[in-house]
Amino acid sequence: MDSRQLLIDTMSQLMWERGYADTSPRDVRERSGVGQGSMYHHFPTKRDLALAALERNVADLLPAASELDGPGDPMARIEAYLMRPRDALKGCKVGRMTQDPQVREDPALLAPVQRAFAQVHTRWVRVLREAVAAGGLRADLDPEHLAHTLMAVLQGGYVLAIAQQDPGPFDDARAGALSLLRAAAPSTPHPTTTRRNRTP
């Protein structure tokens, strides 16, 4: 790995652990082993390095969210995404940045965070619409609203887990969301499902 990528990876990890405000260029140099001259050759300012690291964090988040796309039962994809293993006590690499005042107050630093959540929201809406169309969820549910709800459950679950230093609240939050989704299944079979399962 070259020095530029090592600096980005190190900044990405430190921002996840400490936030932007509490990460200094010296912290990055000490952990990465990259010298000051090389660091400032690639990134003249801490902000420049932070922007590259944020893009890296976004790149880590979006492939996981892509699990919501693809073939197969949309409800199964939703359940797999909600319940996949996560380190609740470390929180979300991207969501963590919204708690940092220096990120919130800098439009350029906040932009990758906003973009990432917008893309995840789009994927949630798409799979929820698929679930409604397939008969897994009631047709009167609003996929846009529900997508925001499920994203808030995950992000809020991280906050509760970190506050209590216990992954239990995170696991309970997403299990509760899954229970609510199952309860939102239609009380009668979806017409397309009925036709599909009807025997000749």
From TrEMBL:
Known DNA-binding region: 24-43
Entry's transmembrane regions: none
InterPro entries: Homeodomain-like_sf, HTH_TetR, Tet_transcr_reg_TetR-rel_C_sf, TetR_C
Domain HTH tetR-type positions: 1-61
Record's keyword terms, sorted: DNA-binding, Transcription, Transcription regulation
Gene Ontology MF annotations: DNA binding
Pfam family, one: TetR_N
PANTHER family recorded: HTH-TYPE TRANSCRIPTIONAL REGULATOR LMRA, TRANSCRIPTIONAL REGULATORY PROTEIN
Protein's recorded name: TetR family transcriptional regulator
